[in-house]
Amino acid sequence: MSRPRGKKVLLLSVALFAIVLVQTWWITIVLNVLPYKKLSSLPLQTMGLISYGVIVSAVIAVGFITKQMIDLAQKESQYEVQAEYINTLDDLFTSVRAQRHDLVNHLQTLSGFIQLGDPSAAQEYLQELLGETLFTPEVIIQGAPGLSALLYIKQGKAAADSIEFRLNISGELTDINVPPYELNRIIGNIINNAFDHVQALDVDQRLVQVDIVQNETGHCFRIANSGTLNQESRAHIFDRGFSTKEDNQHSGLGLFIVKSLVQKHNGSIVVDNSDDMVTFTVFFPRKNTTFKQVGTVLDLHK
Which residues fall within 8 angstroms of residue 222, CB to CB, at 6 or more apart? Predict the structure, then answer.
């Protein structure tokens, strides 16, 4: 559940409980009025027990209502991220179908050049074709089809925006202890942030690199982009509402959500700026591995 919604639920619960207390105090103490005459004849101790019972019942009712509201809000949040995950897979399916259709067209064109006895035209066409960005097996990650789909889509987005997008994938993600849809939110938000950052640079300087590596203790994701990050931005980059963009079109929640999700799954995230590259490093321990056993995130860099 998001923090603003959680605050609203808590405030409503506190307000409801306060109303019950004030009403009880006002009737029984200030006005010294009881709604039923039979109650006024009861001993003071009995009256106190009744009042206590009413207050306890009110607290239980408020607690139950609060729990139900929190559960509903959490389910709504889960549905939202699952819908985002499904949309990513749908985009992947659409892209694969389109690529297959284009490939058939290209092969038919090459076949036509050859049948017409014009191999030079076929060679020229093939050279132009190979000059385009091809999206293939380098984005396939064993154990993480959702992340594979996400990287596939991001690769196409980078090509459309004239961004050099490098991928280095080593190992599998079969034993990572993070739900696929939340892993996609983490990596996707960081990549989006990197894309936004390099868009302000000249075309020949737009570089985003994604490294996914592992060792015996866990999995490391490094997303780096060309550019710099000043000291103030580094200090507040994960703060709620903080944004390095000046267009006021961003909520500043992306990296805040990323850090929250990383911590939720006992991971860690750091940001570094060196050699004119801004690098976010996310680390998750393997399943059934405690964080104390893992050591530092930098162990995966060795």
Answer: 209, 210, 211, 212, 213, 279, 280, 281, 282
Cα–Cα distance, 162 to 137 (Å, whole number): 21
List of residues 6+ apart from 162 with CB closer than 8 A: 203, 206
Instruction: List strand residue ranges (DSSP E) for 56-103, in order.
Output: none
Q: Give pLDDT tens digits for 117-168.
A: 888 888 777 767 655 544 455 667 877 888 888 888 888 888 888 999 999 9
**Domain positions in the chain:** 3-80, 133-301
H or E stretch including 259? helix 254-264
Question: What is each CA distance from 213 to 99, 168, 270, in whole angstroms?
Answer: 28, 8, 16
**176 has which bridge partners?**
286
Give the pLDDT confidence of 8-50 residue by residue, as tens digits: 666 666 766 676 666 666 555 544 545 555 555 656 566 556 6
- Spatial strand order of the sheet with 268-274 comes to 164-169, 207-214, 218-226, 277-285, 268-274
Cβ atoms of residues 197 and 276 within 8 Å: no
CB atoms inside a 10 Å sphere around CB 46? 11
Provide the token pair at 119. 């191999």
Backbone φ and ψ of 200, nearest 5° = -80, -5
Look up the CATH superfamily of 133-301. Histidine kinase-like ATPase, C-terminal domain (3.30.565.10)
What residue has token string 């903080």?
242
Q: Are strands 207-214 and 268-274 parallel, antiparallel or unpaired?
A: unpaired
Q: Are 87 and 94 in contact (CB under 8 A)?
A: no
Radius of gyration of the chain (CA): 29
